[in-house]
Amino acid sequence: PFLKQVAGMQLDTGAGAGAMGLGADSSARGEFRAARLRMPATEAAVSQFIDRLDSQWPYAKAQPVKVFILGLDNYGAESMPDGSIVIPFGLIDQAQTDDELAFVLGHELGHIRLRHFARNARQQQQSRDNAQMVDVFVTGASMVHGAAGGSNPLVNAAATRGNAMNDAARLFLQTLVEPDWSRDEEDEADATGFDLSNADAYDSEAASATVFDKLQADADRRAALSDTLAKGMQESMQQTLTASSVTSVALGGGAGFAGGVKQGLISGAGKGLVAWRASGKQAKHRPPAARKKGIADYSADAYPAGLPLRDEQHVWLDKVRASKEYVQARIVVDAVKASV
To answer: β-pairing, 78-79 with 84-88?
Structure first.
């Protein structure tokens, strides 16, 4: 099993590993993730679930794992450089078995325990780029609207749409963008998730047979959303700039230094998102069929005697979904989904 091979791997155990290289950066901390949903009882239950998986890790642990839930209907989860795991409500809502949940969370736990963040400069830069892109767009839109003083109806109408797009941009760039893991890192995390969940008596094989298809469907949905958002931002900025040109005095003469800076900020940010989308910086995983075959081959090699037959488990999910907190959270998540 891969879990036994970790003993021979060179993991980063320096000072940077404890903080995952970005522990002080708010963009790398789960508690500052946009759309966080306060569900203390559910967060505690998920933490206990992960702790059980984590107890199967036989090596030193750089830091404890923290859990934060997002008010989104996404499927999947995301590990963060500070050692936290952010879990969209949609994962708990859409998972069919505890085994499925164990495999997904074991995969994210693998990224943390294998210290992928400490050696992944791309991931660190991506977090910074996303935060900067949102800030530039929001700043540009605010300056254009603020300069007009709210006196022009056209500017006000355009700004209303612009503010809505600002919120959507922040939500997308801070919550809907997957880490840019390498193929080796993803394979290692898949194997770790398989080993950890199996060691904790979950049906890893049945879970892995369904998880990858759901992850791909969710990625396709988010890709479509990013296309819609990029188009909406372009339209929003065009409306704002067109309307604000009517009030050239408020913009500092339009052609003047102040006007040029303000227009440049908002248009540049929009172009930045469109360019980011076109560049393919969003994560690209191998097709579900390839990942399922990879795990099937791994299972056959790592466990030649086969794995024990296990009944699918639902106890944990049934208990969490029966709580009042869960029912109330669903109302919030449905509202967020409708607004986006």
So the answer is: antiparallel
